[in-house]
Model the fold of this input.
Amino acid sequence: MNDHMKYTVIGAGNGGKAMAAHMALMGKEVTLYNRTFANIEVIAERGGIDLENPDGLYGFGRLAKVTDNMQVALDGADLIMVVVPSSAHRDIAQAMAPYLQDGQIVLLHPGRTCGAIEFEQTLRQAGCTAKPIIAEAETFIYASRSEGPSHARIFRIKESVPLAALPATQNQKVLEAVHTVYPQYISGGNVLKTGLNNMGAVFHPTIALLNAGWIETTHGDFQFYIDGVSPSVAKLLETVDRERCTVASALGLRARTGLEWLALAYDARGADLYEAIHNQTGYYGIKAPATLQHRYIFEEVPMSLVPIAALGQRYGVSVRGIDAIIRLACIIHNTDYWRKGRTLDKLGIADLSVGELTKYVETGERD
Done:
């Protein structure tokens, strides 16, 4: 890859602002897109974003362009970083479809579960004729928060983040492109593996729902991962984690356990999930959501837990723990997350055998 790549960040939330500012401080040409201009108006006026980062680059990241026009955002971009809740992936794909160009790389940060599959399916349904490369990260590279309209803070940068392209034959090309800014990315195999190694699916909704009373009473005034993970909550996390790994096994994959993931991403270790989470220094200081109307539930349940459970049901795995979390979310939010979520029918893979599904994610071919 050349040194004159152009980068576009889609989404100006907690993660998007941090990523755009960080890449700009690396000296890269970065465009920031957000569909609601009011949310980026201050950034546009100032021409960039202030970044706090205790472990690396910090200061004012000057951006090349700040826009709410998707055509402008994608024009000439080599690497397109999609940093929005995965519940918005379908809408973003539809908005991108008329403007994508052959060879552009679209990287979902993260894909959650089956994100790249959904994105490709949506582009096809929207009549996209270009041939971009769609890829997904297993998790988001930062622990970060927005500190103001044009101010972001990075708490921690993960040491190693797997990614995969759809199909997996394009993994190396994506890695070569992203390594111009993030050498932390490594090959994640294929998008089934990255999707089933989705630790947000285990941590976010389970901790949020089991701390529902505390969140509503304190409006999130406690440390989410530290105060919110008691020994009993950790036991339920381990049940959800075990079911996720069993679904992966049914697909011929070995998913990382929660303990293995914490060691890989943060070098945090312990005898069990309770101990390892409390040994992850990057989690200290991260407050709980102020409300249960939060992406930890409305994103993670339909876009992470529903497809994991659906794959489990399709291929004969008991997912009672995961289903219990989904049902609790449906009750609390008074909505049907099974209907809204990434079902296998919506993803276009309901009729595929394990072998056919594997062939699709590895080569892009369908029988």
Summary: The radius of gyration is 19 Å. The mean pLDDT is 95. Residues 231-250 form the longest helix (20 residues). The first strand starts at residue 6 and ends at 10.
